[in-house]
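stage 2 :: seqdesign
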């Protein structure tokens, strides 16, 4: 099969012919319809973040497709079924899985990190982990549910605990941030989207933001948000991964507010501990999504409560995957999410 292979950091992915995965008795082989192009992959390629499986390997953790083959023990699935694969596979037996926190599973396995991913014609997955995609949803574009939509869903609903009527600030309107905007709006939040690109802010309005702020055009973001909301946001969600914007997000909160850290950074974050204590502030991390929530997200997409296809602004054939990453590096203001199609 054809695959885009990660050979080493700071080098483009290489198109190669590699063996098709062998199907075990409890596995399904999925013919990849599309796979999302994510910043996480760019961290491996450009920023020296190591993969658990050493290169050469296949990246890609946002796949959708159809079942090409099912193992001997697999029940309830057949060739041709439309499926979504989660970005992370969970064991189901560790203490965190048993507590309903499978997204921080002790034995988690991530596609395109610990095992070969989906920048290829086929990808192998345990049958227990796949989800059915209804016919009403587009097969290719729905691949981004695997991460770009599920991750912000978990951040908004489970970690942010956003409720109807809450004032919610989302800082960063890239692919994950834009999904956080629309999920927060879908559950009843009044969303303020923050970015430095006017094009992104215009898109954020279309995805449900009640207000937008260009951070370059205000002297103090926290004061601006507090003035707009009459005291501050209930929840602030930072999806950039920068200590400076994480502090800004914290400063946007009212007393008793909650900061949700979604953006990754290896740098330390300094916050005023006295303020956290005295005002009963909360700072929580958010990683991925629990498997139990994927059917809910798929249903929201099927009912039109969140929009999937509109988030996909660029499609590339697998052979042009490096062009997709070049587009991400440039930070094109009109791009929300790119996908590659084998």
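stage 2 :: out
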């Amino acid at each position: 099969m054809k695959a885009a292979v990660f050979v080493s950091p700071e080098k483009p992915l290489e198109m190669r012919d590699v063996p098709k995965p062998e199907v075990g008795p409890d596995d399904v082989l999925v013919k990849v319809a599309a796979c999302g192009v994510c910043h996480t992959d760019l961290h491996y390629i450009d920023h020296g973040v190591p993969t658990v499986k050493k290169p050469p390997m296949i990246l890609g953790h946002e796949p959708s497709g159809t079942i090409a083959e099912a193992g001997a023990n697999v029940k309830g699935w057949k060739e041709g079924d439309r499926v979504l694969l989660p970005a992370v596979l969970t064991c189901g037996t560790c203490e965190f899985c048993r507590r309903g926190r499978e997204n921080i599973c002790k034995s988690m396995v991530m596609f395109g990190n610990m095992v070969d991913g989906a920048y290829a014609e086929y990808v192998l997955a345990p049958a227990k982990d796949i989800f059915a995609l209804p016919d009403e949803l587009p097969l290719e574009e729905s691949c981004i549910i695997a991460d770009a939509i599920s991750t912000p869903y978990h951040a908004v609903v489970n970690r942010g605990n956003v409720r109807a009527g809450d004032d919610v600030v989302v800082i960063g309107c890239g692919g994950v941030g834009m999904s956080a905007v629309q999920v927060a709006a879908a559950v009843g939040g009044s969303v303020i989207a923050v970015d430095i690109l006017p094009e992104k802010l215009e898109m954020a309005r279309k995805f449900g933001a009640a207000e937008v702020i260009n951070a370059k055009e205000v002297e103090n973001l926290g004061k601006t948000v507090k003035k707009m909301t009459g005291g501050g946001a209930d929840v602030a969600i930072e999806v950039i991964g920068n200590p400076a914007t994480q502090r800004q997000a914290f400063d946007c909160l009212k007393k008793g507010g909650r900061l949700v850290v979604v953006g990754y950074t290896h740098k330390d974050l300094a916050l005023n501990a006295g303020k956290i204590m005295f005002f009963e502030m909360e700072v929580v991390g958010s990683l991925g999504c629990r498997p139990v929530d994927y059917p809910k997200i798929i249903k929201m997409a099927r009912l039109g409560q969140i929009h999937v296809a509109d988030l996909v602004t660029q499609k590339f054939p697998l052979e042009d995957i490096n062009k997709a990453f070049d587009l991400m590096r440039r930070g094109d203001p009109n791009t929300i999410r790119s996908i590659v199609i084998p």
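stage 3 :: structure notes
- The first helix runs from residue 39 to 46.
- The chain has ten helices and 18 strands.
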